[in-house]
Write a structure and sequence with these properties.
The protein is mainly alpha-helical. It has one domain. It has 7 helices and no strands. Helix 3 (36-52) runs parallel beside helix 5 (70-113) and helix 4 runs antiparallel to helix 5. It is rod-shaped, with a radius of gyration of 24 Å.
């Protein structure tokens, strides 16, 4: 366990920690953890690194966790499910943000086509004058 703790502490703030996380999971698997306290420790370590770092390929990492056996698999699957749910939430939030931005662009285009003044468009969309001018130029629309 000392090697795992040292590895965790050394790399816990790495910007990208996929390799470290694979090593840690494999070290846990090699020692065949059965003790409930050690299993909770494994979950805490994996969760900490997963939450503190960017993981290049979350699905591959989750597949690695799913391929484990015994109590360690059960303990880390709880964390893996949480990671999946967090990823889905992040995707939904990003989709909503992109949808809102696209709606603002669409509203700007429609307002420009109708001859609305740029100050009015700024009020209804929340976009800056510069953003509206950029959209107008991109879509070859006149603005007032």
């Amino acid at each position: 366990m000392d090697g795992i703790l040292a590895l965790t502490l050394k790399h816990s703030r790495d910007k990208e920690a996929s390799d470290t996380l694979y090593k840690i999971i494999n070290k846990f698997a090699d020692i065949d953890i059965q003790d409930p306290v050690e299993l909770q420790f494994a979950n805490a370590v994996v969760s900490h690194i997963f939450n503190q770092s960017d993981i290049n390929n979350r699905e591959t990492l989750l597949d690695t966790i799913e391929s484990l056996s015994g109590p360690l698999r059960g303990e880390l699957m709880t964390a893996a499910q949480r990671f999946r749910e967090d990823g889905v939430k992040e995707g939904i939030e990003l989709g909503i943000e992109l949808g809102i931005e696209q709606t603002k662009i669409d509203m700007t285009i429609n307002c420009l086509k109708e001859g609305s003044h740029i100050q009015f468009i700024t009020k209804v969309t929340g976009l800056s004058i510069e953003e509206i001018e950029s959209i107008a130029k991109e879509h070859q629309l006149d603005f007032k």
